[in-house]
Design a protein that fits this description.
The complex is a heterodimer of chains A (146) and B (484).
Chain A: E1 4-7, E2 13-19, H1 22-35, E3 39-40, E4 44-47, E5 50-53, E6 58-65, H2 69-87, E7 89-100, E8 103-112, E9 115-116, E10 123-124, E11 132-134, E12 137-145
Helix pairs in contact in A: 1-2
Chain B: E1 10-13, E2 16-19, E3 31-34, H1 37-43, H2 48-55, E4 65-75, E5 77-86, E6 92-93, E7 105-114, H3 115-118, H4 122-132, H5 147-156, H6 158-163, H7 169-173, H8 191-197, E8 210-219, H9 222-228, E9 234-241, H10 244-261, E10 277-278, H11 282-317, E11 323-330, E12 332-341, E13 344-353, E14 355-357, E15 376-379, E16 387-392, H12 394-399, E17 403-405, H13 414-420, H14 423-432, E18 436-439, H15 442-447, H16 456-466, E19 469-482
Parallel strand pairs in B: 3-4, 18-19
Antiparallel strand pairs in B: 1-2, 2-3, 4-5, 5-13, 6-10, 7-9, 7-11, 8-9, 8-19, 12-13, 14-17, 15-16, 16-19
The chains are: A alpha+beta (146), B alpha+beta (484).
């Protein structure tokens, strides 16, 4: 099973994310969001088109309550995007402490970024976002406004 | 849901098609799209027209949901979408109908220099501008302010910066809304939004934002060009950017606020990005206050960039060299406006997402020197083609709530553009054509290649032929400055 893939979109960036559980889908969505920015960071290299880092030096707790699991994912990614924008970090790993369809408490792990290669990410949108299980795999599309 | 096909539409003219309410049972009004049959083929396989139909479901929408000829798929509204709601009759306000880059817009500066007289200076001027105006992902500018000072900027927009010694009174007078929306309330902008924007004033950002030195190479309407102060071979400077991270966060915040305030609406929406609030509700009014503050931030942003450009210009061409704002026009914005509907003057909330005002002669919102000719409308093309100055008309007031298109409109995805175009090759070909490029990366340049966009000539022709806006002048790029 792949973690995420880029899907063509005329004006913005769209990814399709997969997970064997909803928690893993959230992790892959986090990784996919920062992947599309093409970050360069000390101690990280690209292997098979994925940024692999030796260790993470920063962490943040994220607590979200939302209407449903789709909103939960948008709010979670929006919070990570806010933290990234303000601190110039990327987050590529996480530990989920509490998770249900309407609530989560997670610690995200990341590191400072030297540069972003491709695009500024304005926001995470709800457009086309629908978390569903297809043949045992959780998946959704996510469109980022750039 | 079905995507409308050409056979589902009524052809009103060569440039205007209507999707009737019979197409889908939840449509409150018809949808109208300004395009040619050839342009239809560029969007028929994506979701642009489906998103246009979704717009018609907004409560209180008046006359039609409208799409401009640069329509392309977005989220919620398509890019190029215009919708007006009657706020006295249950009309609603939708943040997704304006978008995340609140008050993204274009400011055009006119100079007293002829391009032919400054050609040899342009490479050095380009380098100086690239250094003076930060561009690219998240790059903060040299302007710093405290949170209290930021609140004053959110409240007063470009006015506050003039007070602080940046730019001129004339710069702000030639901004849409005079560079300040009166409903702004900084207390309704979140701390998160303020933190995302506080170090970004005076910066371009990335994506399709740019700074260009251009040459007026064609005048189509002498009288209007004269009123705007444009003449052939004049050097102009165009600035395209928005409200940066602050505006993005305001939209994110209020979409969540409205989802949480009206959870019963969410399952009924054709697209969750179309969440709305009644104009008279607290979430609706609060959003307008935050939207206004973010809009003021965007005007302040373009105002500071103007200040930086002016400093560079004076360094090269002397303190007496003139750099004056012709107009500053928003293309992601929502405003209360008076429009005539079936002979009755109504106060509407007009959403424009990737669309601009194009008010005709006589409207009080048009600056006094342009009252007799209509407001300036800017349609930027690509870095290798041309941009256009048009004038708003009385026809636009009848046809499109006084609105025009805002650009060429993408046809290729960014990934596709990068596959098809080598940034270094593009840079070389632009330089061969006499266009100097300063940009952060070749990849970013390739994403914005001219071939990734519709033909600007066709888009402008649709606006001109329908009478929505009349061609005034064409501007050819000579220096292009872009972010990543």
């Amino acid at each position: 099973m792949i973690d995420f893939e880029l899907i063509p979109h005329t004006a913005d960036i769209k990814i399709r994310v997969y997970g064997i559980s909803k928690e893993q889908l959230f992790l892959h969505a986090l990784q996919g969001m920062f992947h599309v920015l093409g970050p360069t960071a000390l101690g990280c290299v690209y292997r098979n088109d994925r940024l692999v880092c030796q260790s993470y030096t920063v962490q943040h707790d994220i607590v979200i309550t939302a209407l449903d699991v789709d909103s939960l994912l948008v709010d979670f990614l929006s919070e990570a995007l806010y933290l990234s924008d303000v601190h110039n970090y990327i987050y590529l790993d996480m530990k989920m402490h509490i998770f249900s369809d309407r609530q989560l408490h997670a610690t995200v792990y990341g590191l400072p970024v030297i540069s972003f290669e491709i695009a500024e990410l304005k926001a995470v949108t709800y457009h086309d976002l629908h978390i569903q299980q297809i043949t045992g795999i959780w998946q959704t599309d996510i469109v980022f406004d750039i | 849901m079905n995507i409308p096909r050409l056979t589902d539409m009524i052809r009103i003219s060569d440039y205007l098609y209507e999707i009737p309410t019979s197409f889908r049972s939840d449509m409150n009004v018809p949808a109208r799209v300004y395009m040619t049959e050839q342009m239809y083929h560029a969007i028929k396989d994506d979701r642009s027209l489906l998103q246009l139909v979704n717009m018609t479901t907004l409560p209180g929408i008046q006359k039609y949901a409208i799409a401009m000829p640069d329509i392309h798929q977005g989220y919620g509204f398509p890019i190029g979408g215009v919708a007006a709601t009657d706020i006295q009759a249950g009309g609603v306000i939708s943040p997704g109908g304006i978008g995340y880059d609140i008050n993204c817009g274009v400011r055009l500066l006119k100079t007293d220099a002829l391009i032919s007289d400054i050609l040899s200076d342009l490479p050095a001027v380009a380098t100086a501008l690239f250094r003076a105006v930060p561009s690219g992902v998240g790059r903060g500018g040299s302007f710093t302010c405290s949170l209290d000072e930021l609140d004053q900027i959110l409240l007063h927009g470009a006015h506050q910066l003039v007070k602080q010694g940046y730019g001129t009174q004339e710069d702000r007078e030639f901004c849409q809304a005079n560079g300040r929306m009166m409903y702004a309330n900084p207390e309704l902008v979140s701390y998160r939004a303020k933190m995302r924007g506080i170090d970004q004033l005076g910066t371009l950002g990335s994506g399709n934002h740019f700074l260009e030195i251009q040459m007026v190479d064609e005048i189509y309407d002498d009288a209007t060009a004269h009123a705007y102060g444009l003449s052939k071979n004049m050097a102009t400077i165009m600035i395209h950017c928005g409200s940066r991270g602050l505006g993005h966060q305001v939209c994110t915040d209020y979409i969540k606020i409205m989802h949480d305030a009206f959870p019963q609406l969410v399952p009924t929406l054709a697209d969750r990005e179309l969440i709305y609030a009644p104009a008279h509700s607290t979430p609706g009014k609060n959003y307008v206050a935050a939207l206004s503050a973010a809009s003021n931030f965007a005007w302040a942003n373009r105002h500071l960039i103007t200040h930086a450009v002016r400093k560079v210009w004076h360094t090269f061409f002397g303190q007496s060299a003139s750099v004056a704002t012709l107009y500053d026009l928003s293309h992601n914005i929502g405003e209360y406006e008076i429009h005539e509907i079936d002979g009755v003057q109504k106060q509407l909330f007009v959403h424009r997402k990737g669309a601009t005002r194009a008010f005709g002669p006589g409207r009080p919102e048009v600056p006094t020197p342009y009252q007799s000719v209509g407001q300036p409308v800017f349609i930027p093309g690509t870095m290798g083609t041309a941009s256009y100055v048009l004038a708003g008309t009385s026809q636009s007031m009848i046809q499109s709530f006084g609105s025009s298109c805002h650009g060429a409109g993408r046809v290729w995805s960014r990934a596709h553009a990068k596959k098809r175009v080598q940034g270094a090759t593009l840079r070389a070909s632009l330089e061969r054509a006499g266009i100097i490029v300063r940009s952060g990366s070749d990849a970013g340049l390739a994403e914005e290649a001219p071939s990734a966009y519709k033909d600007i000539e066709q888009v402008v022709t649709v606006m001109h032929e329908t009478g929505i806006a009349k061609k005034v002048a064409r501007l050819r790029p000579r220096v292009v400055i872009k972010g990543e």
